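Consider one such protein record:
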Amino acid sequence: MPVPSPSAPPNRTLLREHAFHALRAAIVDGTLTPGEKLVDTELCAWLGVSRTPVREALAHLEKTGLVQIQPGLRTVVAPLDARAAVEAQAVAASMHELAARAAVPLLTEEHAAAMDRANASFQDALGRGDVDAAIAADDAFHRVFVELAGNRMAAAILDDVTPLLRRMERARFGALAGRSSVAQHRSIVELARAGDTEGAAAVVRANWLTLRPVLE
């Protein structure tokens, strides 16, 4: 019988992205704890990839502030850094404000309804003390504007800075649960439905800046 030709090897970029997203998720959700030493061989075995994509992923994570690399010595999960989180917050607030300005004129009732559902899920998760569900719902709420705006550069910046904020929120969820975000979310949707671009953008910015007491 004919011998099948070997399948193409996995794309290196895909392997790197797989390693990056898996490692980032483990750092943000606390599976990999602040200060924990990261050993290449152990990470390769866990992720099922070679050393090159793991090292490339770690280098990217260092740039985004989630990993600290001391060449020739060690690589560790970065400690929680309130200052870095506050700096990331300022960038996130600006990018979400920018997204809101572009998205509100394009908003349909379907988009607004999706934001309403996400906010209801967010409120429910806060009430249950479910940090994972609360952050997922908050992400879903704000993702509507980001995707509708279609600004790829803003989305890429948010992809880098948001994990720093989410990591701190998870560590200090008690403070997160006391935020006024549910009411602010409602206000954002109401203003967007009314076509008030500047009003919605201002509340979006304020909503992200309410994280300040949680982060410090």
Q: What stands out?
A: The CA atoms of residues 88 and 142 lie 16 Å apart. The mean pLDDT is 89.
